[in-house]
Design brief:
By secondary structure, this protein is α/β, with parallel strands linked by helices. It is 54% helix and 11% strand. It binds adenosine-5'-triphosphate (ATP).
């Protein structure tokens, strides 16, 4: 990894970039994953590289869904495996949601490498290699495990593509997306959209789960019932606008 000094103003962002590059070198992340990361970085820059209030609300609602689910699953792709393997395993441990690897650019070798990578970070059973069920999609993200995503009632999909998100929603599942772009097809179609960097979102969710685990089912349901995803999307768009306005103001650029 390239040495990044901790006092570098873009330290967190550059470390994330290094981790993705390392993921590609290890054969975990696809080269296309670099492009997806670039788009995420751009939106993170626009939102101010922080967890905005409405994203924290969405993260709490996501946790409430995971804790009340019968068969919760955390879907793992090549980017998340490279960026946050330890956090994925911790979130799975605290919520009881199983991990399932699901790839757009699927190969047996990559599946195996990602599963082993998660195991090296403490995962027990990791689903995804059976691929014995199919979502009605023309690409490989449609290949899923029968006992995993196919049968799940709640699916957390950090960094998803729009078609699969829509398909999972159509199948009647609760879909929780983590996506910094509030305008992506994924963000617009998910049940809960967390417009936050996956690196911050998962850490927050682990913390929230520890706090909310003692809540009753009724309390968790009340959190779910009060949620409005459209408002959360609108707030993310507003936060981007306000962040840009403030930035312009600081630089003496008139906002027109
Ligand atoms: P869609 O099909 O939903 O419209 P897309 O084609 O814009 O998605 P993909 O390339 O499938 O995007 O997935 C990348 C998405 O993940 C982008 O919306 C990007 O903003 C988001 N993203 C990338 N890196 C991160 C990250 N570290 N944290 C959160 N979101 C991220």
């Amino acid at each position: 990894m390239t040495h990044i000094p901790e006092d570098h103003p873009r330290y967190a962002s550059l470390i994330t970039r290094e981790r993705i590059v390392e993921g590609v070198q290890m054969g975990i992340t696809s080269q296309q994953g670099l492009v997806a990361q670039g788009r995420g970085e751009a939106f993170d820059y626009l939102i101010g590289e922080r967890t905005i209030g409405s994203a924290a609300i969405a993260e709490r609602v996501a946790v409430a869904y995971l804790l009340t689910a019968q068969r919760p699953i955390i879907s793992v792709n090549g980017n998340t495996a490279a960026l946050v393997p330890g956090a994925l395993v911790s979130l799975s441990d605290v919520t009881g949601a199983q991990l399932e690897v699901n790839l757009f650019h699927r190969s047996d070798a990559r599946m195996h490498r990602i599963i082993e990578h998660l195991k090296a970070h403490g995962a027990g059973k990791v689903l995804g290699s059976k691929g014995d069920a199919r979502l009605d999609l023309s690409h490989d993200r449609g290949i899923v495990d029968q006992e995993g995503i196919y049968a799940a009632d709640v699916v957390l999909v950090p960094l998803e593509d729009g078609d699969r998100c829509q398909k999972l929603v159509e199948m009647g599942k609760i879909v929780i997306a983590i996506d910094l772009n509030p305008l992506s097809r994924t963000s617009l179609s998910a049940t809960v959209t967390i417009a936050d960097n996956v690196t911050r979102a998962l850490e927050n969710m682990i913390q929230f789960t520890k706090e909310m685990k003692k809540d009753s089912k009724k309390q968790l349901q009340a959190i779910i019932d009060s949620y409005d995803n459209r408002r959360v999307l609108a707030d993310a768009m507003y936060a981007i606008q306000e962040h840009l306005k403030n930035q312009a103001g600081r630089e003496g650029i008139e906002w027109i």
